[in-house]
């Protein structure tokens, strides 16, 4: 999955020590909770010899899991999620959204209800615990033993979208379609239900024309980027820099904040 995940190149991997790159199989069950434990365990070791660690990533939930900790949720019967997934297929997302609106109006108003995974997660907690999903948020989180400086790079939305469209074209030129073909046997795995793979699976299953599948990858990536911006802009402590800012200027600012004048 080198191309579709835009993993660091061998040159980039050689330039700096990386962690969590291709460390799991697509067949492995892995989630944000497991990532939090693995990341914190690694950080504890790294901080024995390093003063500063750099974390790079685009998933707000996974970033927050490391720097803020996860909310605790009770275990619920797996059959609840199975039933909700069945409802999604047979009755549609709107049905689940209305159910969430009734059981947890706060989550309905504040969460990304266009994301079926988030809606199903909230509903399974509501149904399994008989309490609103929102009632478990921001309580009893583990305190971190490190401080965090968050850096964001900004650009005009038109530029971001242009870069996304160009990036998808480059990925296709690099052989994304061939990469997806090699994964056809595993197309039902959750790890492959992601942008770039699911659209090309539909092309290979003759549900989409190739041009349309590529346009869908671009559209869905743009939507993902929009959600990323919304998520990260909620954190008022983030230091935003225009993407053309000289790297040295950013380093000077960071060094000042950590006391390295």
From TrEMBL:
Task: Kindly state which keywords UniProt assigns to this record, in alphabetical order.
Answer: ATP-binding, Magnesium, Nucleotide-binding, Transferase, tRNA processing
> Per the record, a Pfam family?
IPPT
Q: Which InterPro entries match?
A: Dimethylallyltransferase, IPT, P-loop_NTPase
Q: What is its EC number?
A: 2.5.1.75
Q: Which biological process, per GO, is one annotated for this protein?
A: tRNA modification
The catalysed reaction is: adenosine(37) in tRNA + dimethylallyl diphosphate = N(6)-dimethylallyladenosine(37) in tRNA + diphosphate
What are the required cofactors? Mg(2+)
Class in the EC hierarchy, top level: transferase
A GO MF annotation of the entry reads: tRNA dimethylallyltransferase activity
Q: Which family does it belong to?
A: Belongs to the IPP transferase family.
Function of this protein? Catalyzes the transfer of a dimethylallyl group onto the adenine at position 37 in tRNAs that read codons beginning with uridine, leading to the formation of N6-(dimethylallyl)adenosine (i(6)A).
Name of this chain's protein? tRNA dimethylallyltransferase
Q: What is the lineage of its organism?
A: Bacteria, Pseudomonadati, Bacteroidota, Flavobacteriia, Flavobacteriales
Supply the gene name: miaA
């Amino acid at each position: 999955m080198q191309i579709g995940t835009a993993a660091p190149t061998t040159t980039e991997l050689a330039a700096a020590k990386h962690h969590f790159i291709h460390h799991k199989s697509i067949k492995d069950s892995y989630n944000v909770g497991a990532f939090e434990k693995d990341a914190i365990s690694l950080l504890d070791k790294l901080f024995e010899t390093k003063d500063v660690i750099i974390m790079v990533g685009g998933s707000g939930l996974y970033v927050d899991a490391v720097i803020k900790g996860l909310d605790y949720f009770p275990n619920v019967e797996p059959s609840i999620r199975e039933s909700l997934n069945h409802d999604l297929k047979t009755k549609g997302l709107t049905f689940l959204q209305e159910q969430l609106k009734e059981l947890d109006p706060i989550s309905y108003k504040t969460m990304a209800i266009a994301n079926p995974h988030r809606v199903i997660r909230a509903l399974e907690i509501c149904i399994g615990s008989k309490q609103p999903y929102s009632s478990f948020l921001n309580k009893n989180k583990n305190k971190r033993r490190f401080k965090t400086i968050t850096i964001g790079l900004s650009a005009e939305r038109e530029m971001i979208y242009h870069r996304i469209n160009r990036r998808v074209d480059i990925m296709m030129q690099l052989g994304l379609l061939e990469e997806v073909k090699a994964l056809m046997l595993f197309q039902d795995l959750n790890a492959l239900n992601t942008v770039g793979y699911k659209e090309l699976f539909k092309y290979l299953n003759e549900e989409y024309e190739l041009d349309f599948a590529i346009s869908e990858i671009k559209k869905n990536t743009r939507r993902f980027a929009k959600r990323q911006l919304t998520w990260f802009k909620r954190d008022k402590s983030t230091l935003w820099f225009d993407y053309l800012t000289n790297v040295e200027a950013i380093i000077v600012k960071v060094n000042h904040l950590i006391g390295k004048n």
